[in-house]
Design a protein that fits this description.
The chain is α+β, with helices and mostly antiparallel strands. The protein is about 40% helix and about 25% strand. It folds into 2 domains: about 170 residues, 2-Layer Sandwich (Ribosomal Protein S5, domain 2), CATH 3.30.230.10; about 140 residues, GHMP kinase, C-terminal domain (Alpha-Beta Plaits), CATH 3.30.70.890. The strands form 2 sheets. Strands 1, 2, 3, 4, 5, 6, 7 and 12 form an 8-stranded mixed β-sheet that branches. It has a 4-stranded antiparallel β-sheet with strand order 9-10-8-11.
Length: about 325
């Protein structure tokens, strides 16, 4: 890689503090979704280097690499988001390389951050300027329309904007409200937040489809859980802005209880063991990151998080660093 012609972009992943699943259609179309999220300085990177002919696609963290002879062959195959990006924003023959700081299947919105990094890098390779809102909108289109992958829009918006956000969705509209936390509150949350990788998530688009099909049928359990999750998200900004750390922890756990009502596979045995250990270590609350069924969980630990850290390590799980990303997508 390298050289003056290579362009690079990166975007942060997120912690979905409350409201995840309510940004997914048809709930977000009918009832309107609310999500509170925070960008984390674990980045997804994309870089584009022109070449004489053809395309070379490399996903470094997944250890995947393919050669594509021409644009007509980008329709289907491995690395669908990279293929979709090259179809939607064709830069000409190139090498497209991506990598993520977070582990695969972490539940931290890496695919949404990848969408955003791809849009920014490909636009730069085309010599086009782009603003943050357009980046977010194009990133949502890349995944949901061009790649045909079902899901919500919180990941792309958080990766594009960065910081703490209250996001509201009434499809096709989306509203972004930055939340400016007191510096001491933000520092305390980062210091006490334990982000634990339990193993790759086993959730799929089929699960999302199953949950939303139940909502469309009027399943009272699923509909009630989604309404409850939106209610938790409505309460979370007040707790964050007030610096009420205990209340934040309580809301995290409330969201997780409601989330588990959506699908019987939401909580794996590994996640159950981790949650019990965190409660015993004095955590104030916690939840799965993203959809659930594996991936990461995050917990708001006690003022001295050392016992909780020790409990995570005893379970053999990986702790990921938590540093808030005040900036969203950026050229590198």
């Amino acid at each position: 890689m390298g050289g003056a012609l290579t362009v690079r972009a990166a975007a942060p992943v997120r912690l979905d503090l409350a409201g995840g699943w309510t940004d997914v259609p048809p709930y977000s179309t009918r009832a309107g979704g609310v999500v509170v999220s925070a960008a984390v300085e674990l980045l997804v990177h994309a870089e584009v280097t022109p070449r004489a002919q053809g395309y070379r696609l490399v996903a470094q963290d997944l250890k995947q690499e393919i050669e594509v002879a021409d644009a007509a062959d980008l329709a289907d195959g491995d690395m669908p988001l990279l293929r979709a990006g090259l179809r939607m924003l064709p830069p000409g023959p190139c090498t497209l390389v991506t990598r993520a700081d977070a582990p695969p299947g972490s539940g931290l919105g890496s695919s949404g951050a990848l969408d955003v990094a791809l849009v920014a890098a490909l636009k730069a390779a085309r010599g086009e300027a782009i603003d943050v809102r357009t980046t977010a909108d194009l990133a949502c289109r890349l995944e949901g329309v061009e790649a045909g992958i079902p899901g919500g829009r919180q990941d792309q918006f958080t990766a594009a904007y960065g910081g703490f956000l209250r996001l509201s969705f009434r499809d096709p509209d989306a509203t972004v409200e930055p939340l400016t936390l007191d510096a001491d509150t933000a520092d305390a949350l980062a210091r006490r937040m334990l982000l634990c990788y339990t193993g790759a998530s086993r959730f799929s688009g089929a699960t999302i489809g199953r949950v939303m099909a139940a909502y469309e049928r009027g399943d009272p359990t699923v509909a009630g859980a989604l309404d409850g999750i939106r209610g938790v998200a409505e309460a979370m900004p007040g707790a964050l802005l007030a610096g009420d750390v205990a209340r934040v922890g309580t809301l995290l756990s409330a969201n997780w209880r409601l989330q588990q009502a959506l699908d019987p596979g939401m909580c794996t045995p590994e996640m159950s063991r981790l949650e019990r250990a965190m409660v015993e270590a004095g955590a104030l609350g916690g939840k799965a990151a993203g959809s659930g069924a594996g991936g990461s969980m995050f917990f708001l630990g006690p003022d001295d998080p050392a016992p909780a850290v020790a409990a995570v390590r005893e379970l053999g799980m990986r702790l990921l660093p938590v540093r808030w990303a005040r900036e969203g997508v950026r050229r590198c």
